[in-house]
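A sample follows:
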Amino acid sequence: MSENKTQSYQFTDEMACLHVHDHTGITSCNQGHCHIHPGVSGPPIPNGASHCHQIIGQTTFNHGYYHVYNAYTGLAIMLPNGQHTHYVSFRTSCNFGHDHMIEGYVEATPEDHHPKPYEQTF
């Protein structure tokens, strides 16, 4: 039986109100295959008048292994509908002589789903 460790982690109501972005997609194809990179970003990290997000995760298990990644999005890109997105471009870990590229935009989120200005620090 697995143990629920969430209770020991101090995740407050204020933290739960900060927005995150889905970043699910497909990696580049190398050595005849690609992987899915499922996941959700971390909360916003203040950066001047804007913010970025950390993306940590692992790809799907294909061909007997997976890759890991730890990267940051670019700054917020405002969209005409009042939402925003972020551009990402990074490489996964190198395993079995190759890595994969992850590149694109995270899912758009309404701009009003986070406090302004960004004053939260964790």
Observations:
- The chain has a mean pLDDT of 86.
